[in-house]
Amino acid sequence: MAVGDYQMPNAQTLPPDRTRPMAVVRASGHWRAVTPIQLPVAADPNAYANLSAVACADVTDCVAIGNFNGPPHGSTTGIERPMAVFLRHGTWQRAIPIEMPRNADATKTSTLGIAGAVACQRDGDCTIVGEYPTRAGGRAFQAQVALGTTTLSRATELPFSPLFGPGAEGLALGGLSCESATTCVAVGNVSFGSTYAAVTESEVAGKWSAAALAPLPTGMTTASSDTTLETVACSGASTCIAIGLVQELQGPRAPPVLVDTLSAGRWSWAATPKDPGSSMGLTGVSCASSVACTAVGYLIGAHGEVALLARGSVAGLTNYRSVPLPNGGPGPANYFRLESVSCTAARSCTAVGSEGVRAQHLTGFSHALATAFSAG
Known about the structure:
Blueprint: E1 2-7, E2 19-24, E3 26-27, E4 30-31, E5 35-36, E6 49-58, E7 61-69, E8 80-88, E9 91-92, E10 96-97, E11 114-120, E12 125-134, E13 137-146, E14 151-152, E15 156-157, E16 170-180, E17 183-192, E18 195-204, E19 207-208, E20 212-213, E21 225-236, E22 239-248, E23 257-263, E24 266-269, E25 279-289, E26 292-301, E27 304-313, E28 316-323, E29 334-345, E30 348-357, E31 365-373
Antiparallel strand pairs: 1-2, 2-5, 3-4, 6-7, 7-8, 8-9, 8-10, 11-12, 12-13, 13-14, 13-15, 16-17, 17-18, 18-19, 18-20, 21-22, 22-23, 23-24, 25-26, 26-27, 27-28, 29-30, 30-31
């Protein structure tokens, strides 16, 4: 199952960014036709809406998350809100809003919350994490889903660590992996004014611990770089790999990506390749076992942007290689990016992303792309 969004054809009566959520299933080795998702009743029909993540308990019962805009109230844009949509017995239902914690406050922002990640168990218990604004700053939330009854709880606030210090303003979670309905690992970042630092947060026996700063490469500090962890994959309750991005602000050249690993309850930094002279990033990771992990992302070089594939284990990624544009098309105007990956076995993975063309003086275009591959 894959989810995303598509842009409606432009018309005089419609804004150019009228975007709609979609879902598509791959069965028996073939991708089926895209299914448009109905927006929540409270959504602005002329505004942007998308789906960003999906998790399934089985082949006919899933939950996807994303965001939508409510109708404007005295302003040109509505309030952005998180939403969830259920696949029940093989049929997608109408999306519904995720109710934010009662201390949510959107008076200083046009966003009431952002859905970050979702994970499901085979019994239908699912967990959603994300971020939302309060008077004290941004905070992380979690919500529970029961696919059997398609019920969605009101979101609750997750602990914000006092160890971050007085400069910490907001906590956001965008990656999640759960071994059970009450045992999860989430990753994201905490903001310090204009800078960001990667964080991890864990749930054990139904209790979430306060978020903690993630380990950084040797010689780097939260003051010298922007870092975030975007996604995490676990092969056990305390064995995980998390990946993210690094942006150097000052000091020696930083590694292009951030890879942290969890073993025996302790997070540590895993060495990554030196920057090949191009921008690169990892945005998705999946582990079929503790010794078979696959990550995907992008690499920007002289010949445009190509997809990046990395392999390794929960102890780190060791084999990085680029993936050529699927349609040839050399040149700096083209791009091919893989965003997410799911592996069912050590040598059986499916990745999704987008391919498109960027051209000067012209509006760029892109289309969704999915690829199934075996290790090689």
